[in-house]
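Sample entry (124 residues):
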Amino acid sequence: QVQLVESGGASVQAGGSLRLSCAASGYTVARNRMGWFRQAPGKEREGVASINPFGVIIYADSVKGRFTISKDYAENTLSLQMNTLKPDDTAMYYCAASLYWGPPSLVTADYHYWGQGTQVAVSS
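Predicted structure, serialized as tokens:
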């Protein structure tokens, strides 16, 4: 059974930093594409960053240069380093895992497993 458990969400002031982690069990993070998504109240879930097994990475334009996605193969975790946070980054953040190893993707339909989310709140 695949489980993805996110952690690291918090309330911070604009300009601050957070590091989100996603611990995977029943799933090998090195094997297939994984991603981070977020959903703000009243909005659709959107892709933030994705990484495939070959280390190819893509980011949403809104987070380029501020967020960094990475995998820790020894710990079997996925991380998202978030710097220079803005109030618009406020959302529930979700870790997602795919059954396939294709290109990275910010499309929710390309993922098969989801975590429960961790809340990020950025105040101005």
